[in-house]
Design goal:
The structure is a single chain. This protein has about 130 residues and is an alpha+beta fold. It has one domain: Alpha-Beta Complex (Nucleoside Triphosphate Pyrophosphohydrolase). Helix content is about 20%, strand content about 45%. Strands 1, 2, 3, 4, 5, 6 and 7 form a seven-stranded mixed sheet that branches.
Length: about 130
């Protein structure tokens, strides 16, 4: 089975996190945390900073590693490294996603998450309780 290694940022602002809606592919319209593939020679952190620049045209600070999810999709095995992050500037531009929302703990389940991303929700809700 094909293996893909990706990174994702749970961008936090106060008691809310930033979620993006996919605009393409087999999971079009499903929700995810922004990020993307780790390229050869990159660390997970380097890949995340690059992907956020490409996808959202913004800069983030990686605050801490949250969790790695291993998930089998029908066509590939996904290794998803997830990090808590903060915006270094308030501007965000959706270069690849069709929509985005800021969600708090009470609304985090209001969107249809990709299965691997959904596995992170209990950990994220715990993070949101820490203020």
């Amino acid at each position: 089975m094909k293996r893909i290694e990706v990174v994702a940022a749970v961008i936090r602002k106060g008691d809310r996190i930033f979620a993006t809606q996919r605009g393409y592919g087999a999971f079009k319209d499903w929700w995810e945390f922004p990020g993307g593939k780790v390229e050869p020679g990159e660390t997970a952190e380097e890949a995340l900073l690059r992907e956020i620049r490409e996808e959202l045209a913004t800069e983030i600070r990686i605050d801490k590693f949250l969790h790695t999810v291993e998930w089998d999709y029908p066509q590939f095995h996904l290794t998803l490294h997830c990090f808590m992050a903060s915006l270094l500037q308030d501007t965000l531009h959706l270069n690849e996603h069709e929509a985005a929302r800021w969600l708090d703990a009470s609304s985090i389940h209001s969107v249809r998450w990709l299965p691997a991303d959904e596995m992170l929700l209990p950990l994220i809700v715990e993070e949101l309780k820490k203020i």
